[in-house]
Design a protein that fits this description.
Largest sheet: 8 strands, parallel
Number of strands: 8
Subunit structure: Homodimer.
Pfam family, one: DHquinase_I
Shape: globular
Catalytic activity: 3-dehydroquinate = 3-dehydroshikimate + H2O
Strand order of the largest sheet: 7-6-5-4-3-2-1-8
Strand content: 15-25%
Helix content: 25-40%
Number of domains: 1
EC number: 4.2.1.10
Structural class: alpha/beta
Number of helices: 10
GO biological process, one term: chorismate biosynthetic process
CATH superfamily: Aldolase class I
CATH topology: TIM Barrel
């Protein structure tokens, strides 16, 4: 079993992308972080890629209007994105899901930047994502304690028939990032370079690949 790694592209660094390519199965193109150069970056990719234009309320840096944010995501469909990340709180999420699914898969995400909800509340977020039409549900919380890893990873057993990527951010949540694919996630996210993570606690592609190599998975 080869565990899948999604390399997160946060800037137009061709050397870093080339170095990471042999170790990843797909990339995430962070439109909000890369800026206006993102179409050129995406156009040079030979691996499948996820288009993400993260709104500020969900931890992103997009400064434009909501309509222009979504326009960039639609542009990504024309450029060959394999998947588009839509936040669950997107006001027009229903319309966007329908539009995305005409050309690509739809990942519906939700990020809790403050903590990890109780094990009783977490499943309701997944159910909302599924009801919205998610092909893949991405639920990311913030780990304030090591026990939060257990709570977020427990979701995989509750949704065995769904495609789910669930883990916790922060130093206390690193374990959940590593274990997510072992629990059933189709992939986990990793930074291309040290010092350039897109979220707290994110390991690099090379670090994650080495961990899996040593685990022989």
């Amino acid at each position: 079993m080869k565990l899948k790694i999604c390399g997160v592209i946060t800037e137009a660094d061709e050397a870093a992308i080339r170095a990471a390519a042999p170790l990843v199965n797909l990339f995430e193109v962070r439109i909000d972080l890369i800026g206006p150069e993102w179409p050129a970056v995406a156009g040079n990719l030979t691996s499948p890629w996820i288009a993400t234009n993260r709104m500020a309320a969900q931890g992103g840096t997009w400064q434009g209007s909501e309509s222009s944010r979504l326009e960039e995501l639609m542009k990504a469909l024309d450029l060959g994105a394999s998947m588009v990340d839509l936040e669950l709180i997107t006001p027009t999420v229903g319309e966007m899901v329908a539009a995305v699914k005409k050309k690509a898969r739809c990942l519906i995400s939700h990020h809790d930047l403050d903590g990890t909800p109780s094990p009783e509340l977490l499943p309701f977020l997944i159910k909302r994502q599924l009801a919205a039409g998610a092909d893949i549900c991405k639920l990311v919380t913030t780990a304030n304690a090591v026990s939060d890893n257990v709570n977020i990873l427990g979701l995989y057993n509750q949704f065995p028939g769904s495609s789910l990527v669930a883990f916790a951010m922060g130093e206390a949540g690193v374990t959940s990032r590593v274990m997510a694919p072992l629990c059933g996630a189709p992939f986990t996210y990793a930074a291309l370079d040290s010092g350039k993570p897109s979220a707290p606690g994110q390991l690099t592609v090379s670090q994650l690949a080495e961990i899996y190599r040593r685990m022989k998975v």
